[in-house]
Structure formats: C-alpha cells, structure tokens
Design brief:
The protein has about 500 residues and is of the alpha/beta class. The chain has three domains: about 130 residues, Translation factors (Elongation Factor Tu (Ef-tu), domain 3); about 260 residues, Rossmann fold, CATH 3.40.50.300; about 60 residues, no CATH class. Helices cover about 30% and strands about 25% of the residues. It is built from 17 helices and 19 strands. A hairpin with a 5-residue loop joins β8 and β9. About 45% of the residues are buried.
Amino acid sequence: MVPSFDQVAESISHADTPAEAVGIVYGDVGSLSLRCTVTGHLAKNEYVQIHHEICGYVLGQVDDIQRKTDLSIERAQQMSKGHDIEIEEKVIAVVSIIGFRDDRDLLQVPHTPFRAGEAVYRATEDLICEIIGLNKDERKGAYLGMLSGHNVPILVDINSLVQRHVSILAKTGGGKSYAAGVLIEEFMKHDVTTVIIDPHGEYTSMKTPAEHSDSMKRFDVSPKSYRGKIMEYSPDTKVNPDARPLRFTLKNLDAREIIGLTNLKSVRANLLSLRRALDILKSGGKDYDLADIIAILDSEDDPSNSSLINELEYLKEVEIFAREGTKIDDLISKGGTSIMNLKGAAPDIQELIVNRLATALFELRKLDKIPPLMLVMEEAHNFCPQQGTAASSKILRTIASEGRKFGLGLLVLSQRAAKIDKNVLSQCNTQIILKLTNPNDLKAVVASVEGLTSGMTDEIQRLPIGVALVVGGNITSPLFVEVRPRESEHGGQSIKVIEG
C-alpha cells in the first residue's frame, strides 16, 4: 500500500505564507537562479519556495550551500595556540529555480527577476507535488520510494514507463539490481507483461518474500512473494533446476545465420556445405535439429567439413536448439513476468539467446501476436556494447529506436554507462541513476539526461546507497529519491536501504 498524499502533506493553501522561513534573497537577482542568506536549517538539494510579484510562489532547489567566515590564516594560527578568536560567519545558499504552474497547468519559469529582500521558505509538500507533477493516482503510479528529505511518495506513471524506454545505471554495488527489482515489483502489481534477461540468476529470488525490516514501516510496504506472477526459463536446467527449458528451433535460420552463431573464420568455405545440408533437410518437410545437420555433413566424408562439424557439435552440446522450441504462448503470458535465467550459459550463448528472443518479440509485437510488454536487459553493456558488436547489438538498437511505436518497451541496466551503445542509452526517456564515480560513465549520463545541473552531476558521485536520481516519465525535473525497500527477496549483493 502506498502512503496517501493526505497522510504526508499538510493542507496548506499555496496563496498563504508558508510557516518556515529559512533565508532572505540578496545581491544581484535573476529569474532562473538567486542567492540567499540562510537564516534557518537548510541543506543542499532541499526544496524552497520564493514569492514572485507576478507568478506567486515559485519552487526552487538548493544547488549549493556555503559557510563564509572572516577567519584568516593568521587568526586560525592564533586559535591553534589557544587564543580565543571570534569568528563572524554567514551561510549562503545558491538556489536554482524550477518554476510554477500556469493557468494551463504548464510548468513555467518567471520572465522577470525576483526581488532582493524576499523571504525564502522551506517548500510545502503540496507545492512540491504540484510543481514537479508527481502522480497522486496509486492506480497508475509505480511506487519507487520517497522524495529525499521529505515524506513525499514518488510514483512514476506506469504508462510513461511502458510506452518509453528506461535506464537504471549505477556503479558496482550501487543498488542497480535492487532498484530494478522495485520497478519490476511495480510492473507485476500493475499487470505489465515483462520479460527479464537475467545473466546471473538474480531475479528468481522475487518468488520469495523479503525479511521484514524497520524501514518498511516508514515506506508502508510489507514482505510479499511474487511466485504466482513469475515463470522462469533457462537454457541450462541442470544449473537452474527450478526453471523450464528454453529451446529454439532452426527452421527460421538460413545457412549464413547459423554460421554466424559459430566462431568460424572462413565463412564462405563452409557456407555451400551447410546450405546443401539444409536443402536436403527442408525437402523432407520435417522438423530438424543440429544432430540432423551434423549427420548429413558427416556422411559426405569431406575433410573440409570438419571445422564446421566441430562448431555445430559445440552448439549441440549447449542444447538450446531442438526439433521443438519453447512456444511463444508459453513464454509470454499477458500480465505475467518471464525470467530468462541465463546463469551457467557462456557469454556467446547468452548473446545468441538474447538475439533470438529479442528478434522474436519485436517481430511478433509488430504483428500484434503478443501483448505489449517490457523487455528488461540486465548487464546491457554486454548485449549492446558501445565498442565492438555483440550478436544482439543490431536488434537491441532496433528495439530502442522503433520498439515504442509497436508497444515494446526496453529497460536497460548497467554498471558501465559509457560501455552501452549510445544509440540505445539516448533513447531512454526515463533514467534512474544511482551512485556513479567513473568519469566516462558520468559523461555518458550527462550526454543522455536532460535537466541535470552541475550540482546534481557532482552529487551523483556522492549518493548514498539506496538513493537515486530519477528523471523522465511524468517527472518534469530531476528528483533525488530514497528507493523503497523491496517486498520480495533481493537476489543480488545485499544493500542497506536508507532509513529516515
């Protein structure tokens, strides 16, 4: 249950003067930023409101805060010797203006500067919700957590998430998979058809309820199992015994595509032999598998086929191809969540599976043969890298650029933003960014996210575990959000959720 806004926001009219003044506007004043002397408790990234003579109360955010003093080096040295030195100090905040809502409910910024001497107030939660455009409808909102420093629930519009692409980015151990689990829980609550590419088997734990924690009370969540919503598939059911087998057929692959699955360097030399074998099998009108292809090549007793046979034997041992593949009707269930547990599969086989699966989902969505869905790509930098190519690169670029118009959304997750194909990352309209410290990853984020201030970029490097910068969907300006506790068990590295 998501806490209601009536529970967390006081009924304060925006026309009335807010109760708590925290500063006074001073110096040269603009319409997009201003400085104020701090007279109350105020912290970086907090929301404030300032009265504008034309626009009424306008929402701003503290971009930076400094304590200025008259303490010189010489006087500091005297203090170190035990002298009693008086220090005059002033705390000064830099405020970036977010804006106000006009009579059409559009977010606007003032066109004339604020007045020096205006009081700066701590923003009421009503005004924060109104200006930022937070979703108050629990039926449509994905409950991510609380606005950092406030008891304001952050609900991202489900339709915005599904109809547009999403990225979740964080350094290793930064809480990326944990935040993804929160979002997937919300997908399941709202019956969003979801397919998860899970290279390490992290998401099968969602079948198990989480242990109760003290922070759950504040966020108003309870332990919950999603077993009834989840179907698990794997190419290796020996490693993942609780999963159903994931298999593909060969009938839609031509000779060049099959060779593309191998490590053969001499494609042309093997193409003719493989085409001949496929023609023989297809003329029989029956389903066939790799063993049938190998038998025909072996019967030719041609030494030049040995390399091709060895590569096909490797694919055969992986057991992802069979006469009868996994039926798409079994794999995709409307309103259900399908986990493709690839734990135990070699990287090249994982690429092959993602390529085949993503291609099938895209083509079937174009024909409206499966319901609209979200494709979750964990470790996305491995499947659509910026440098080089993977077997799945082309189809994921296609889904990123064209999937939305066919009802196929994409959620990409990575600890290396700079290593994801920029053509994929730039198509993500909603971003959930946790702690990042690598300079190249930060540059990739800045290039792909609109509305980031320099202060926010610096803050990303210092984010505590459990806090994310969220932008996009129905959220018109970047927000720092304390990610709510998971209801289901987290299968990745354990993290500590921020407790208020």
